[in-house]
Amino acid sequence: MAERQDIHPSVQESLERVTDLLHKHELVENLVHRRQGPRQELVENLVHKLHFVELQKLLDALHPADVAYLLESLPLEQRLVAWDLVKAEREGEILLEVSDAVRETLIAQMDEKELVAAAEQLDTDEIADLAPDLPREVIQDVFRSLSPEEREQLRSAMSYPEETVGALMDFDMISIRDDVTVEVVLRYLRRLDEMPDHTDQLFVVDRTGKLKGLLAVNRLVVTDPETPLATVMQPEVVKLHPHEKAQDAAKAFERYDLVSAPVADEDGKLIGRVTVDTVMDYIREETDSEMLSAGGLREEEDIFASVWKSVKNRWTWLAVNLVTAFIASRVIGLFEGSIAQLVALAALMPIVAGISGNSGNQTITMIVRALALGQITAANARKLFAKEISVSALNGLLWGGVVGLFAFLIYHNWQLGVVMTGAMVLSLVLAAVMGVAIPLTMQKLGRDPALGASVMITAITDSGGFFIFLGLATVFLV
């Protein structure tokens, strides 16, 4: 899917125009329905044509990614009206571009023939991306419509698990033999109707199909046609394997500024390639997933989904949060006597919990990012742990001193100021410990390190911060 986070103003204008046309259509249609008459059917047909012709022209002129953005931005009823106006030959491309949640609503409105026709417009790697959302009968019909070579490619693409290089791989590439000259390669390229997208280099193979090197297109253009290919190709290449983690491929693309990279099997045979647009889509989806996981959302949600569906998506971590809130309230309840004797405690304790929660979220963000980049190992984990505790202790001493001074100036009680400082130091150290421990534990259990991280750290720092502050106050002040 194409990157769509920074929307061009023209797309926003198109969304406004689409919304306006759909709104006008609804108003006129409602008016026609109220007025019964002998020619009502004729009038309704004219009403449909009045706005739908312009709307269809607008949709036809937009890039599939922009149409997908429009569909995601429309309420369900209007979305389906606009979807009916999309030309059949563009449906497959647009289904690939929309979010999973919106794709589900569109596929639900399509019959089997429409889905087969949409899938047949796509390359085999794209069909594999769409396959998990399609009914089994549709996939079987699509298989029957493909050539033997395409069937094998589709089986191969669907055999790789998500989050692997194989799931990102496509088969549309140019491979050339290593025993020919540059002139032979140029003649071969001239016979092609067009080159695959993002072709910055050609893949050089031997007679058995083993990858031997790469030939950059810009190097090909300026090389003497009589030059043997083996002398101008680049033998040292960044080579991916289909069972590698997709995350590793993304790191390679970023580190080496790649536009495309070959994928070879265990025997070194070239089986496909990965391109930068696919990697960018993967990175965006991973970023979105981490944001949702951190907020306690189980999956991507259609913003116009039904109330019940949205509730089901959000309730899990809200339930966890409710339990932890009860725990925090009971912690406060343990110190009701202390709070009653020194009312200032009630006013000051949210400061401790709030600062420690923010510090814990900062630590978790750093650790989750480091885990994603593969920077944390068994050898450096202990040093990182000590560093985060030191940072939090220093921050606690600094800002605890500021808050302690603040408490002294307001309540004229130096002991209260000292307790505030001590509570801040201990609470921030607790936040650092949990900020490191939570994502590392989640990863060790095979779970997403960001899953519910902000919910858990807030719960722990709230309860822990209240307990530390009120406990110190009870011992030293009451």
Report the strand count: 5
String of helices and strands: HHHHHHHHHHHEHEEHHHEEHHHHHHH
CATH H-level name of the largest domain... which superfamily?
A: SLC41 divalent cation transporters, integral membrane domain
Mean pLDDT: 86
According to CATH, the fold-level topology of the largest domain is: Tetracycline Repressor, domain 2
How many domains would you count in the coordinates? 3
Question: Helix coverage percent of residues?
Answer: 55-70%
Under the CATH scheme, which architecture of the largest domain would be assigned? Orthogonal Bundle
Strand content: 5-15%
Across the major sheet, the strand order is 1-2-3
- What is the tally of helical segments? 22
Secondary-structure content class: mainly alpha
**Overall spatial form:** globular
Short summary of the structure?
The chain is mostly helical. It is built from 22 helices and five strands.
Report on the architecture of this protein.
The chain has 478 residues and is mainly α. It has 3 domains: 9-163, MgtE N-terminal fold (Alpha Horseshoe), CATH 1.25.60; 175-275, Roll (CBS-domain), CATH 3.10.580; 307-476, Orthogonal Bundle (Tetracycline Repressor, domain 2), CATH 1.10.357.20. The chain is 67% helix and 5% strand. The protein is built from 22 helices and 5 strands. It has helices at 9-34, 40-61, 64-72, 76-84, 91-97, 100-107, 112-120, 124-130, 136-145, 148-159, 165-168, 182-190, 217-222, 229-232, 246-256, 276-294, 307-334, 336-341, 344-372, 381-411, 414-444, 453-476; strands at residues 175-177, 201-205, 211-216, 260-264, 270-275. Strands 1-2-3 form a 3-stranded mixed beta sheet. It has a two-stranded antiparallel sheet with strand order 4-5. The longest helix has 31 residues, at 381-411. The radius of gyration is 30 Å and the shape is globular.
